[in-house]
């Protein structure tokens, strides 16, 4: 089984974690209108997946011919052609994401995102990028690579399909399908019959591990370096990455150096509109405010404690210097007088 994006069947590209511990392409999250990014600086996490309507999940991509994930539709008002964002990118379809100043429109919110199928792309753009040929090539590619693929829309159906099909790929795979290294083959579908399934490393909490596509990319990049047990090293690095992400509640390990003033803190990544929740939201907001006040009080106490430690260490240093001076005067009185004489003699 493969770790795939929840919005499309493609396994390459930049993945970001959702606030429900799933994985999604950043490109897909930016183009699906109901989905949003919790932090525009770090481009994560992917939020509000539950707001995607059921009708969008039922659409079939006309490029890969797969009914899975969530598709967008052609912006032509008379066309209802549906396609995955990453499939459209492979076909070089018209996907305008930047405004006149070169900024991403999805982040600025000033320009509606427009995407067109191969029949309604602007003529100049279609001719320049060879969309007709790219679309034919993409359809042949997906016809070859997606042959025999079976998708499941729930864990129960995934387990049922996996029991009877060897090439099943789940849209929401169970924990046992989380893969960390090349040594781990397909779960529930061993290559050799009659052998028990291999052990797969996973977290006790069931948090997702790094996608197999990312592992393969890093492992292939390290192939040119003389690293002993390269695959084991990359697998251990993937485990470390996963544990750190879980400890940081999904926050990125590497942050950009140039931070915006509007950068959210890690606690604000899960912020909600409490006013729209009614009375229950007011109680939640009150509890969060009390928690913040208690946190501020604890930080003030920590600051006072740190200042007291600094004063204590300064007093200890002063006492140590006084003790050293006392010992030098009592036991080595000549040395203190001899040192200035030697300095003058060598000068």
Automatic annotation (TrEMBL):
- Asked whether the keyword Zinc-finger is assigned, the reply is yes
> Keywords on this record?
Coiled coil, Metal-binding, Nucleus, Repeat, Zinc, Zinc-finger
- Ranges that cross the membrane: none
For molecular function, the Gene Ontology terms on record are:
zinc ion binding
Query: What are the PHD-type domain coordinates in residue numbering?
Result: 2-121
A Pfam cross-reference name: zf-HC5HC2H_2
Locations listed in the record: Nucleus
Q: Nucleotide-binding: is it a keyword of this entry? A: no
- Primary place of residence? nucleus
Coiled coil ranges (UniProt) are 282-325
Q: Which GO terms describe its biological process?
A: regulation of transcription by RNA polymerase II
The record's annotation in Gene3D superfamilies points to: Zinc/RING finger domain, C3HC4 (zinc finger) (3.30.40.10)
Q: Which GO terms describe its cellular component?
A: nucleus
Q: Can you name this protein?
A: PHD-type domain-containing protein
- The source organism is Thermothielavioides terrestris (strain ATCC 38088 / NRRL 8126)
